[in-house]
Amino acid sequence: MKRLAIPTLFSLLIFASCVVFAHDGASRQDKGPFKLQKLTDDVYALAGRGGNIGFAVTSEGVVVIDDQFADLAPGIAEQIKSVTPLPIRYLINTHHHGDHTGGNAFFIKMTTIVAHENVRKHMLAQPQETIENGSRRIQTLEGQIAKLQKDDPSSKDLPALNQQLEATRKSVESARAVKVSEIPAPNLTFNREIRMYLGGKEVQVFHVKRGHTDGDSVIYFSKDKVLHMGDLFFNKVVPFIDRAHGASTGEWIETIDAVVARVDVATKVIPGHGEVTTVDELKAFKQYFIDLRAAVKKAIDSGLTREQALKEVKLSQYASYNGYEQRFPANVGVVYDEMKSGQQ
Fold first, then answer.
1. In-domain check, residue 278
2. H or E element: which one contains 252?
3. Which of 1, 100, 191, 256 has the greatest count of CB atoms below 10 A from its CB?
């Protein structure tokens, strides 16, 4: 029995949040729980439900990084207002996933949203992508359910398959209702790098190479020595590798190397997921990919098929990472596909 693949399910869940921010705005509100952490006199990290937020307060306004989900957006704004009454001048999306862009519809009414050009491209393409992928998935699930109902009507897998079918149908229905013109995609994009100068602060926003996606941005507050990595850094969390949207584990390693070479060694690092930490922990995350790629290459060199590699490749030193049981096999599969296709 094949399960719904993690990347497919993840994409559907991400799109569900995109539909919410495109049509629901702040009609449903969740004001917490939030964890506000002061990193320097002017720079803060804000954890909630979704990707970690960062923001810097300047005399000319606030620069915010990511905005989680639509229902959290008013609460995010309240958290910022608890620190300063100054307006939000810019909101930066580190990439296009809905747990980092879900509040865009709320914030785009008050500020300029900045991101790599591929973030806008992926957000605008998401409805049609979901319709196409979801429609194929519906056919597959209906076939699996029909076969089980005939061959094994008491199967314990039937409830889960029916839930997946219902969730996929809802995602497709929501996608059909989306008007592309109403998607709150970034309205200021760049290709390689953009710098902002507000109230004596320099904000470096740059893209290196492919990593988590093909549109990841890194944000560096050079004066404050604070770095926001978006989902290029999962701190003690097994990452999601979005190969469907351009991810590359080989280039991810190169990206982290370039970032480490650029920032001060004493920099505080806000990951996309996990606790605020140090540059050394960012290097440790890079080692995860080095070890993963070495293990998968060994499996390929030994003649293992993809299915065999999914079962046999293990990295016990990372077993304590959040999501290891759920996402590690998918990570193995992505790297296996990269290496076999020659696209790393």
1. no
2. helix 249-262
3. 100
